[in-house]
């Protein structure tokens, strides 16, 4: 995390950005989506009817009903309550899909259509909700003092550098999704430095994971077309509440896996698509560019498979 803070806040990232071109962005971003297909497939395959319905519903909401407006009640100081028409399906396609399919799974559970213990039932993880405390205040060092070792530092350093490259590829991708100009160098430096601070805080709190630009959120922006910072601020408040009110956080854990798998199939697909969309800025008549794209994408899929099959090859 200190390395990430240094290269971010001291402007080192601005120097490295000279070498970050669409040839870098295409394989980096698209492979993030492609590499997660196993996670999406594993969750979706728990019940293909539920996951398929989730994919279909999310597709209809986000692609077909975006211009359909529904009435709602709005309050404005000095004007009182009034009825407004807004694009519900354009703003909340993911949330609506999860709520509806979660409700369908709840009905299936009540009617005992599926056997007990099936991942599509809403009561599979209900014990997590029952056993979790109502309130818990996390604090630095709650799991003991952090330990430092050479192997741990080198391992985390490799992860931090990989996440840094991934993040600087995501920044222009998100800007493109939102119809904004590419972020300036100082903004990217600030973003990388802040990610380093987040990783440092995560280590102090003992969360077990660092802070990085989250690929699923990039996919969510692509589906919902919502890139407002105010939305992110509200989401931060919700996550803080989840961390303090354990019951509130546990509610999201019990979402049926097939529903999550269906959402993942769309989200990860959007990440891959936006990564590939950067090819429009690449000269594809150049054999050199084709070589770089082809080899970087293919070998990035080959090497992890070999590492999984031979975990003891590198000591």
Automatic annotation (TrEMBL):
UniProt-listed InterPro entries: NCS2, Xan_ur_permease
TM stretches of this protein: 6-36, 88-110, 234-255, 261-282, 289-308
CC terms in the record's Gene Ontology section: plasma membrane
Its membrane topology: Multi-pass membrane protein
Signal sequence segment: none
Pfam family, one: Xan_ur_permease
Record's keyword terms, sorted: Membrane, Transmembrane, Transmembrane helix, Transport
Any GO molecular function: transmembrane transporter activity
Protein's recorded name: SLC26A/SulP transporter domain-containing protein
Provenance organism: Homalodisca liturata
């Amino acid at each position: 995390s200190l390395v990430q803070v240094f290269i971010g806040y001291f402007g080192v990232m601005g120097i490295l950005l000279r070498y970050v071109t669409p040839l870098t962005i295409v394989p980096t971003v698209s492979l993030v989506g492609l590499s997660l297909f196993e996670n999406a497939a594993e969750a979706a395959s728990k019940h293909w009817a539920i996951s398929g319905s989730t994919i279909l519903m999310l597709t209809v909401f986000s692609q077909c009903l975006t211009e359909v407006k529904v009435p709602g009640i709005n309050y404005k100081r000095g004007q009182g309550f009034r009825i407004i028409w807004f694009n519900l399906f354009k703003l909340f396609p993911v949330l609506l899909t999860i709520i509806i399919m979660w409700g369908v799974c709840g009905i299936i559970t009540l009617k005992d259509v599926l056997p007990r213990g099936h991942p599509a039932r809403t009561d599979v993880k209900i014990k997590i909700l029952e056993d979790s405390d109502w309130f818990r205040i996390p604090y630095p060092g709650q799991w003991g003092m952090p330990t430092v070792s050479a192997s741990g530092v080198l391992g985390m350093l490799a992860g931090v550098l990989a996440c840094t490259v991934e993040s600087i590829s995501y920044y222009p991708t998100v800007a493109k999704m939102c119809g904004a100009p590419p972020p300036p160098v100082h903004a990217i430096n600030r973003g990388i430095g802040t990610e380093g601070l987040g990783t440092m805080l995560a280590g102090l709190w003992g969360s077990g994971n660092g802070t990085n630009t989250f690929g699923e959120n990039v996919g969510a922006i692509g589906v919902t077309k919502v890139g407002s910072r105010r939305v992110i601020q509200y989401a931060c408040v919700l996550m803080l509440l989840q961390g303090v009110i354990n019951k509130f956080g546990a509610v999201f854990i019990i979402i049926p896996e097939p529903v999550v798998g269906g959402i993942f199939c769309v989200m990860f697909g959007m990440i891959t698509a936006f990564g590939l969309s950067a090819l429009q800025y690449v000269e594809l008549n150049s054999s050199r560019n084709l070589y770089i794209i082809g080899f970087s994408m293919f070998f990035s899929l080959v090497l992890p498979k070999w590492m999984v099959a031979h975990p003891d090859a590198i000591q």
